[in-house]
C-alpha cells in the first residue's frame, strides 16, 4: 500500500517545488546577492540596478502565481 502522502503528490508536487524554488532560490538568493553586489560597486541610482530589482520582484510574483496555480489544480 502507498502512504497517504503520495495522494497529495498527484500532479502538484512538481508545481509546488517550483513555486518554492523560483521566489526563494532564484529571486531571494540569486538576484538579491547580485543586486547587493551591484549597489556596493555602482550605487542604487543606476538603471541596471532597477532592472535587477524588477527582475527579482517579477520572479517572486511568478513563484506566488505558480503556488496559487498548484493549489487550484
Please specify the SSE layout and strand pairing.
Elements: H1 5-8, H2 13-42, H3 47-72
Helix pairs in contact: 2-3
Describe the structure.
Helices cover 82% and strands 0% of the residues. With 73 residues, it is mainly alpha-helical. Helix 2 (13-42) packs antiparallel against helix 3 (47-72). The chain is elongated. It starts with a helix and ends with a helix.
H/E element string? HHH
Strand content: under 5%
Biggest pleated sheet: none
From the alpha carbons, calculate the radius of gyration and give it in angstroms. Answer: 17 Å
Q: Count the DSSP helices.
A: 3
**Poorly predicted spans:** none
Q: In angstroms, what separates the terminal alpha carbons?
A: 25 Å
How many individual domains? 1
What is the 3D form? elongated
Structural class: mainly alpha
Mean pLDDT value: 79
Q: What share of residues is helical?
A: over 70%
How many beta-strand elements? 0
Amino acid at each position: 500500500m502507498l502512504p497517504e502522502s503520495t495522494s497529495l503528490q498527484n500532479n502538484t508536487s512538481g508545481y509546488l517545488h517550483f513555486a518554492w524554488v523560483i521566489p526563494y532560490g532564484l529571486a531571494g538568493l540569486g538576484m538579491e546577492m547580485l543586486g547587493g553586489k551591484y549597489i556596493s560597486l555602482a550605487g542604487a541610482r543606476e538603471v541596471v540596478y532597477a532592472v535587477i530589482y524588477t527582475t527579482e520582484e517579477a520572479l517572486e510574483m511568478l513563484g506566488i502565481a505558480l503556488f496559487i496555480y498548484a493549489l487550484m489544480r
